[in-house]
């Protein structure tokens, strides 16, 4: 099992798909990486040599922000908004949708499980 950026990527999958197991690498980035390194699309991770895995690891370390660094960066961006007390920061702080969605109905993912309100029956 190959280990890239602190993640064990599956050996029986194609290189393009296996790279998407790393947080911060999607299908487009994975395809671009594989093409730049000269791997054919049908190449599987189990067929890679140690040198090729090292090549992938170095390219990702050099060019991309992934895993822990990316998570930390996102958390710092949200913390910055909350410290500024701007509208988006206040929405994050209250646990409400940030991007203008309605909250009268829906928004259950952000608001959490519905809480019953006493005395609402007619």
How would you portray this structure in words?
- The structure is a single chain.
- The termini are far apart.
- The protein has two domains: 2-67, Helicase, Ruva Protein, domain 3 (Orthogonal Bundle); 68-111, Ribosomal protein S13/S18, C-terminal domain (30s ribosomal protein s13, domain 2), CATH 4.10.910.
- A two-stranded antiparallel sheet has the order 1-2.
- It is mainly alpha-helical and 122 residues long.
- It contains six helices and two strands.
Short description:
Residues 95-122 are annotated as: Disordered. With 122 residues, the chain is mainly alpha-helical.
Which terms would index this structure?
122 residues, mainly alpha, Helicase, Ruva Protein, domain 3, 30s ribosomal protein s13, domain 2, 2 domains, two-stranded antiparallel sheet, elongated, ribosomal protein, rRNA binding, Ribosomal_uS13_CS, RNA-binding, tRNA-binding
SSE diagram, text form:
Layout: E1 2-4, E2 7-9, H1 15-18, H2 27-36, H3 50-63, H4 67-84, H5 87-94, H6 108-111
Antiparallel strand pairs: 1-2
